[in-house]
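#onboarding

Welcome to the new folks! Below is a worked example of what a typical request in this channel looks like: someone posts a single protein sequence, and someone else replies with the predicted structure as tokens. Don't worry about understanding the tokens yet, we'll cover that in week two.

Example request:
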Amino acid sequence: MPQAELNQTVDALRQAVLAATATVSTPDGAVEVTAGPGNAIVGLGFGRAAYRYSPERLGTLVVDTARQATAEATGTMTEAVDTIGRGRTELPGLLGGALPEVPAPDPPNLDDLPDDGAVDAEGRRTGELLRRLSEESQQQLRGYAQLRAELAELSATARTADGGIAAQVRAGGELMAVHIGTDQFRHDPATLAGLVHSAVMTATAQAAMLMADRVQRLTGPRLDVRSLIEAYQTPDESRS
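Example response:
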């Protein structure tokens, strides 16, 4: 692909991802959630009807509404990426924070390589070098499979300063649970929504850092994954 065309494709993908937002409200207006790319909760609001529910039920409504909003945002992004991405079916998942499937292991048969074969510039036998590279490749695939399994169970929980509100987010950004204490209903709807949103954002940032630490183990010191994640987080998002 010519460089100019590649640049246009990358820019179109970027714009498609940035535009992939969706806002969903409960029928009574109690909860409104705006979701963006990668399961991000970019907006959260409560109406007066929120106080008709118990704190436990309100937390569940937040999670359910967030899931609807993220599903719609992901659908919008998938449609745009399918059009732009030239059949790259894995792109929507990657842009949404999901790791691709583990490639099927297909190790080459190196048993017949001679031990006294050609020598490279560094004095290593070709057969020995190929065997070592094959072993390292298989080891990386096993590490990748283990990483995907770990991330499926990985989550982070963040609480407000008084502990009255907590949010649990899975690695990849999925909102799993919101806990709202009964005493938190002393706040007006805007303040309460802001506190819940802050807890969700903090949990999301913490989950991203946990994910970065796991990925770092696989990549090794050649790539500082944690620093890359931190560079894209605001101070509020990265606080513990």
